[in-house]
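To illustrate the input format used throughout this study, we show a single complete record. The first block contains the structure-token representation of the backbone; no residue identities are included at this stage. The design step must infer an amino acid for every position from geometry alone.
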């Protein structure tokens, strides 16, 4: 038991803090990426009763603008993780959505398993699957369209912004790989 509890103390010190330049570029990317998705959502898609902005994109912004060297932030993971998780979330909602606790647990756990199996692990994908289950009636009415709009299209917009902004600074390079 002592060894088990000792693992919870951690074994390393905190990493060094980011430079002011790194903070600025991360802020700019997140502002432009989320801002563009939110603007298009508000001024274009909401008029068609579609959504483009989902909560899991906030977590994706942290990765693709603030932790650009992370394997979890690469395009394959961003796009594949969200898309696969959205499909799973919709399928689970449509099959066991009448039992919310079971649908939520299955959607997130199966999304994680699928992302691991396909090498597309992107933590916000778990939230994307969960949103498909616990989202509003508007989200549920989308059915499998949810995987395309808002999920894949919104992630593509954020990726384009990440490609443009992350490569403006001399010391930043994104992506490290595509597939």
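Output of the design step:
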């Amino acid at each position: 038991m002592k060894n088990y509890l000792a693992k919870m103390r951690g074994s390393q010190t905190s990493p060094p803090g980011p430079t002011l330049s790194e903070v600025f570029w991360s802020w700019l990317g997140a502002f432009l990426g989320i801002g563009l998705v939110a603007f298009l959502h508000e001024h274009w898609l909401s008029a068609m009763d579609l959504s483009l902005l989902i909560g899991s994109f906030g977590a994706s912004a942290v990765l693709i603008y603030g932790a650009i060297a992370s394997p979890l932030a690469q395009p394959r993971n961003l796009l594949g993780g969200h898309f696969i998780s959205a499909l799973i979330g919709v399928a689970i909602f449509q099959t066991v959505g009448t039992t919310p606790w079971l649908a939520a647990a299955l959607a997130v756990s199966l999304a994680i398993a699928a992302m691991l199996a396909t090498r597309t692990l992107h933590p916000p994908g778990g939230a994307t699957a969960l949103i498909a289950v616990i989202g509003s009636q508007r989200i549920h009415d989308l059915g499998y369209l949810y995987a395309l709009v808002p999920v894949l299209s919104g992630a593509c917009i954020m990726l384009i912004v990440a490609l443009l902004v992350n490569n403006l600074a001399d010391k930043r390079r994104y992506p490290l790989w595509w597939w």
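Structural context for interpreting the output: The chain has one domain: 20-166. Residues 20-166 form one domain.
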